[in-house]
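Anyone have tokens for S-adenosylmethionine synthase? Sequence:
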Amino acid sequence: MVENPFFSQFNQELKMNPSRSSSSGKTFLFTSESVGEGHADKMCDQISDAVLDAYLKEDPDSRVACECVTKTGMVLLVGEVTSKAQVDLQRVVRKTVASIGYDDSSKGGRGRWLSTTRPATCWWRWSPSVPRSPDCVFEGRDQEDIGAGDQTEECMPLTILLAHKLNYRMKELSRSGECPWILPDSKSQVTVEYRDNMGAMEPLRVHTVVLSVQHSPDISLEDIRHQLMEKVVKVVVPAKYLDEKTIYHLLPSGKFLLGGPQSDAGLTGRKIIVDTYGGWGGHGGGAFSGKDYSKVDRSGAYAARWVAKSLVKAGLCRRALVQISYAISVSHPLSISVFHYGTSSRDEDELLQIVQKNFDLRPGVIVKELGLKRPIYQSTACYGHFGREEFPWEKPKSLLF
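Reply: yep, here.
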């Protein structure tokens, strides 16, 4: 089996500095959740980004804002677009729904859902009053707060990293046919016990794992729980984090037959914490999916992640929060702030100077440096936008300091 790049560095050891001792020895619990591709909200995120990609494939200068709503047998797209591209939206929706797994009538209600899906649209041309200069911010937000830390090689909090990988593993088992009883909808939740080591959050052990997965009716609860433990938990979670006190809630509801839009309404942009850091760090408030690179909700957040990860990978700090503030039609950031939580030998003003020396954070420049005109967005819409090496904002920049 070819290893997916998402897992390429997962089994590497955490980068710890043994010379540091905890200032207080304080420990605490922190929890993050993730959802699978078939979750109704995540389905909408993927559809919105599939629409965006379809426009960018034909016209890289497309301006797209696509929101999606779904419930049993219905998908509604609403938004605005300015593009030379001609896109068959119904085809994009149906293809995306099928790729998620709602494609086969032999697997519960999924095939019936796909065959009766009615994509509808409410689509408008973009307002001519919105400026078009590539160096302008097209749609502003007050701030983008994005961080990085050395809990893992990917510079992601262990809680959200494990939560994503548990969902990914379940989907992998389903797609490969090894566990055909696994259906598209799923949710994971991971609680980790941490120690605060002079501002750096060091994971000690996994306290609790919760897995819920939609399943076919022809498998027993006992078998589901056994396979989730042996083929998912023990494969994904490094053994060093599991002990006799770790708590497991595997399909705690006892049954999960109906999932996705059959059981819940879905909406783009309702999983913004899942998309980022699982509750760690900050968030500017805006969702990512369905928005092209000209919206700093998305491009600004990607740039902030790039900056923060570059600082950590350069050894300038063990943990960083980077805040960038933009305003509509203003080409330069209104403000840039860097916080290192006491994990650096340099003060925060020095780190800010390094950032300003090494990064041009104008939106027009971000688009070019990170290649954000490419149709790469559907792949970001599940399992997190950060911590995945295939994305350009995850490749640290070599810093001059």
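DSSP finds nine helices and eleven strands in the chain.
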